[in-house]
Every structure is written in C-alpha cells, then in structure tokens.
Write a structure and sequence with these properties.
alpha/beta; two-stranded antiparallel ribbon
C-alpha cells in the first residue's frame, strides 16, 4: 500500500512548505516516523507575541518541548523579555537563525512606561542589550533582523546602541528594521535643549558625523543588505499630523550605520521630524548609491524643504516611491521628483498632497514614460482633509487647444494601475441634487457644449494604456471612524443622507463633474484596453447602462467588476427614469454573475 514516505523526496519537499502550523502539529501525532519528518517544520518558525502566542508555552510540557527542539528554530519573533534570554540559555546554543524579530516596547516586563505627560521612560536593564548582542554573535547567518526601542534603550550606558550596531551580522543580512523611541538618550556631545532650532541641530549632527565617520567606515560593511526600515516614534508632540519641531532629545546620530550600507536598494521610513529627515537625506545621497525604492509610511512634517531634499536623495533616480498623506508635498517637491526620476519612475503613490496646485500632476503624466502604477489614497484611509490626485479636465483641455501647453499624457502600455480623479468636466446631462432639490455646482462658467470634446480628449489619453488592469476614477471610501463619531447611524458610504451631510460640511464625497462613460461620450476610444480587470466609478456621475455593459462584455474580455454600478443615478437630468435604468442594469448583472467580460463565459 502506497504511503507518504513512498513519494520521491523531491515531491515531499514541495508538499511540506505548503502545510500550516496546525497541519504540522497534527502530523507529528501520527507516528514516530511522521514526528521525525514534521517536527523540524513545526518548530522552524516560532512566534511568541502578545498573550495568545505565549499561551502555547505556559505549561511545563510546552516549555520542555520548545527547549528540546530549539535546534530546529530558524525564524523567531517575540515581544517577551524572558524569551529573549531563552535564546541564549540552555543547550544546544541556537546558532542557525535566519530571521529574528524582538519588539519589547509594549511588553509589561520591559519596563517601558509613560508618565503623566505621555513621555516614555526607559528602565530596560543593560543585560537586555547584552542578551541581544549575544544572540547576534551566535547567529552570523541572519538574513532578516527587526529590533525596536526596547532592545537598545539605556539609562546609564550611551554606548549600548553603538555596541549593538557593531554586533549586527554582516555576511548575509538582507533586511534590517529599527524602530526607535522619541526619547532615546543620545551621545553626550550631541545632547541639545528643546529650544535649539533645526539648523543648530543639523550643525551638531554634521560635527558628530565627522567625528564618527572613521569609526563606522572602519567596520565591516553590510554587503548583502538590500532593505532598511527606520521608524521613529511620534515626533509631533502628541500624534497630531503636521507637528513642526518634534522632540530633539535624540539626534540622527543613530542613522550613521547607513555609512556601512553601500548596496541598499529599498528604504522604509516613518514619523521623522524636520531635522531627522534633513540629515537622513544627506546620508542617503552620499552613502547609498544604489537606492531607488522608498516607502514613507507616516509624515508629521509641515515643511516642504526636507521633502524636496528626500526627493533628491537618490543617485540612480527613484524607481518606486510610496508617500503618505502630507500637507507639505507641493510643486517644489514634485519638481524635485521629476528632476531626479522622470526617466526611472515606475511606481508612485501619494496618499494625499494638499499643496499640489490645479493640474500640477499633469507635469508627471506628460513626462514619466516608464510609469506603471499611479496610486492615491486607499479605501478606509480617506479623511476630511485628504486631497486625491486629480486633473481639472476643462482647464487642461483649454490649455491644449489654445496652444499654451501640450498636456498630452505619455503613459503607455506599461501602465497597470491608474488612480486619478477626473474633475471639472462640463456635464449638461447632470443635475446635482440635495434633499430632493437641485444643488448648484460651480459649472456655470464652463462651456457645456465642450462636454463630449473634453471627455473624448481624456479618453484618448487613457487609450494609450493598453496594458491597464485597474482603472480607478471613483471616490475612495472614507475612514470608517471619521464620520461615524458624529452620527453613529451612518453605516453606508453610499447613503444619500451621508452624501448630503458631507455636502453641507463642504466635503464633496460625490463628483458630479466627471466622465460619463457612455458610448455617446466616446467610450469606444478605449477599445484597446483588453487587459482591464477592474473599473472603479464610485460616486461619480457616470451613465453606464446596458449598451455600455454589452460593449464592455465584447471589448474588455478580462473585465471582472465595475465598482459604482449600485448608484441610483440621482444625478440624472432625465428625472423619472432612474429606477428603470438601474433595473435594466441589475438585470444584466444578474445574467452575468461570473464577471463583465466575455472571457468568463467561454
């Protein structure tokens, strides 16, 4: 009778990685032979985070099993101080880790607490740093390392962090993540009072930089390191977006390890103040010549200058750039980005850029030929001040036909994902309604007869993106908690009550002046988008009906879904036919349950 062990070893090796931890636990109970085979996989990855992770090892049996199988551990993650010491006690010594994550900030035994002013106090024993250093020395083959402030905070030893950095393994380390505190004790000569300005801090940093450069350059380089993540704690004085000065009780001296990272290609940063960002930009520009990918997860800046410096902190040009919602990103930052990366940029995400002017983004669309993805805010991230990337179609078309500027887009077949709000399209077929009454929308100065001409011009720009898979022109959903706190009864972002309340507050959650997406308006110009899978027209005044769906079924064979068809066409000037129009659309969708495109019905 055939058994699992009768399979060729190559097949067994392919199967085992696809099993879950629960599968491994079940398999080791089958027999001694199965236990021998699956035990290494069961203990390969150990995660002891929060209380539910610790529960597995609370019993004597669990502790004994973990100690007995410690030599199988390759990936270890913990938020508990006692399990840090587990890694350096007992026999055999753990020496084959490939991934290590130690985050002690939130653990109650890590002695990191907050006083009445919200300032974090540190009381981590020096032995914690010593333990982490021992682990690092015992595991020179580490490929991924993530440490938070609980691993290197001191009250009496300012050299602890430097010693820790020195112990980082250099041979195979590919990814390094450091999560700092906003109140780390700094080197004595770089301590500054909170009243010292940014310029003075940077000057002190440069002084310390010159002093310590020989020390760092004399150490072994991280030749395999490709990705670095650096996150500071909230430096905006209480978590408010747009904090100006930050907390100067620490300095960017902790970033000097980047001098040993000549092959870093990707960096992720978050929560940095003006001074730290300025110094980081200078370091990246000089120390990381291969850097071309940046992800910025959270911004507390209200100054554009450090953003401009960061846009220029690449030698090769940015290939991927993901930026958070920030009020300070304006035309200067965009110009710096284009100056360094117009020939290299493939991925750009800007969650919100309140200072970008009308049609500034067209400078990117008309020059970044290699762009593959243009992304804005995601669903659930939009708040009341979010400014989505947008184009004033009327103004752009007027410049185009007037010969003032060639606003033609250069985006072509390489584009896969395109997210942009098309605005200010004259729409004589639209009546904006509020509470059953017509709502005045600022379009009276627009030439209504240009509606189809402008839409066809936009369609022509979109038609060049023949490789497009997702076309996102609709409004994104608000953060689920932003408006519910005002009225808990608002449970649907598509409710007319919510839409009208937002309009009263000056927040237009609906775009009445956008693309019609009807055949009459020029939809047939998009016939070449054969790869399109998702079309998002949520909360825009589209006129997608059965004719358009039939056309899409034939010409967009891969189209899986259209977000926004559930709208009830309250914007229609043909008052009275909305229910019938929507009923026919619903009937068509019911007849095509697997998708819109014809490929789903072969």
């Amino acid at each position: 009778m055939a058994s699992f062990f009768s399979l060729p070893q190559e097949i067994v090796d392919l199967i085992i990685p696809h099993l879950t931890r629960e599968d491994y636990a079940s398999c080791v109970l089958v027999s001694h032979a199965w236990s021998d085979l699956f035990t290494p996989s069961l203990y390969r990855t150990i995660q002891i985070v929060k209380e539910h992770g610790r529960a597995c090892f609370k019993t004597p049996q669990g502790c004994t099993a973990l100690a007995k199988n410690r030599h199988h551990i390759r990936e270890f993650e913990t938020t508990f101080l006692d399990f840090v010491f587990f890694l350096i006690t007992g026999r055999p010594v753990i020496t084959n880790l490939v991934s290590l994550t130690i985050h002690l900030k939130d653990h109650r035994f890590s002695s990191l607490s907050s006083d009445s002013r919200g300032e974090v106090k540190a009381d981590v024993p020096k032995s914690t740093v010593a333990a982490v250093i021992t682990i690092l020395n015992n595991n020179p083959g580490l490929r991924s390392l993530s440490l938070d402030r609980g691993c290197f905070r001191h009250t009496d030893d300012e050299g602890g962090y430097v010693n820790l950095i020195t112990a980082f393994p250099t041979t195979r380390l590919e990814r390094l993540e450091l999560l700092f505190s906003d109140s780390m004790v700094t080197l004595q000569e770089l301590r500054l009072e909170s009243t010292v300005g940014t310029i003075a801090v940077v000057q002190q940093f440069v002084k310390g930089y010159r002093t310590l450069v020989p020390l760092y350059l004399g150490q072994e380089q991280f030749l395999a390191l490709k990705e670095v993540a650096i996150t500071m704690a909230g430096n905006d004085g209480g978590g408010n977006r747009g904090g100006a000065r930050g907390d100067y009780r620490y300095t960017p001296i902790y970033l000097l390890f980047l001098l040993r990272c000549p092959n870093v290609e990707r960096i992720r940063i978050g929560r940095m103040d003006v001074m730290t960002m300025t110094c980081l930009s200078k370091l990246l520009a000089s120390a990381c010549p291969k850097l071309d990918c940046l992800e910025w997860t959270y911004s507390t800046l209200n100054s554009e200058e450090p953003i401009v410096l960061l846009m220029r902190a690449t030698t090769l040009g940015w290939k991927e750039l993901r930026l958070p919602s920030m009020e300070a990103f304006g035309i200067l930052a965009l110009e710096a980005l284009l100056e360094t990366s117009v020939e290299t940029l493939e991925v750009l995400r800007i969650e919100s850029a309140e200072r970008l002017g009308k049609n500034d983004i067209l400078n990117l669309l008309s020059s970044a030929r290699r762009l593959k993805r243009l992304e804005g805010a995601s669903d659930g991230q939009v708040v009341d001040i979010t400014k989505e990337l947008s184009v004033d179609a009327y103004a752009a078309y007027q410049e185009y036909i007037g010969g003032q500027r060639d606003r033609s887009w250069v985006l072509g077949p390489s584009m896969e994902y395109f997210q942009l709000s098309i605005e200010q399209v004259p729409r004589p077929d639209v009546v904006s309604r509020q509470g059953g009454q017509e709502l005045i929308v600022p379009q009276s100065t627009r030439d209504q007869e240009l509606s189809y001409e402008i839409q066809r011009w936009i369609y022509v720009q979109l038609s060049r993106m023949t490789g497009l898979k997702e076309l996102i022109l609709g409004k994104q959903d608000f953060h689920p908690e932003i408006f519910v706190r005002y009225n808990p009864s608002w449970v649907s972002m598509y409710s007319i009550a919510l839409e009208e309340r937002l309009l009263e507050d000056g927040i237009h959650s609906f775009n009445y002046l956008s693309m019609e997406f009807s055949l009459e308006s020029g939809l047939e110009l998009l016939e070449g988008l054969k790869e399109l899978r998702v079309l998002d027209v949520r909360r825009i005044a589209h006129n997608i009906g059965v004719k358009e769906l039939d056309w899409m079924h034939k010409n967009w064979p891969e189209l899986e879904s259209i977000r926004g068809l559930e709208n009830r066409r309250r914007w229609s000037a043909d008052s009275g036919n909305e229910k019938e129009f929507k009923a026919r659309v619903d009937e068509w969708l019911d007849a095509h349950p697997r998708g819109i495109g014809s490929s789903y019905y072969h």
